[in-house]
What does this fold into?
Amino acid sequence: MAYWLFKSEPDTWSWDDQVAKGAAGEEWHGVRNYQARNNMRAMQFGDLGFFYHSRQGLEIVGIVEVCALAHPDSTTEDPRWECVDIRAMRPLAKPVTLESIKSDSVLSEMVLVKNSRLSVQPVTPAEWARICEMAETKA
DNA sequence: GCCAACGTTGGC
DNA sequence: GCCAACGTTGGC
It folds into this structure.
């Protein structure tokens, strides 16, 4: 199983919005970047991801699960764009801020820090474990 | 709200 | 196929 990170501006789509969708989950549509799309194509059913609030918040607030494999993005006719569906699993007991990620020796090389523009990105098992530890939340 | 970094587009 | 121009993202 692989780990990922999904970024969203809470003004547009927040963790609370995601939670409100429940077990059915929601299409992660709107991605128009090949790297991000390729990451979604690589996802397997049951992969886990962090839910990160960009622009406002600047912190990881929850854990999501991939509940549908990559399929055409319903918000465009352009066949190049695909997306997965994700559902909220649980919130982090303590959100992990970008600031704390940057200052942590295990996490300072994360894609989140190194390529802040990539909206769907891979997370290594070591990074996953470290963030769950900081969040005081079951991995 | 600004702007640096980055990705995409399109003329040549 | 190069690269200048343009648009977008996201931290600050």
Summary: The mean pLDDT of chain A is 96. Chain A has one domain: 3-134. The domain at 3-134 of chain A is CATH 3.10.590.10 (ph1033 like fold). The longest strand of chain A covers residues 82-97.
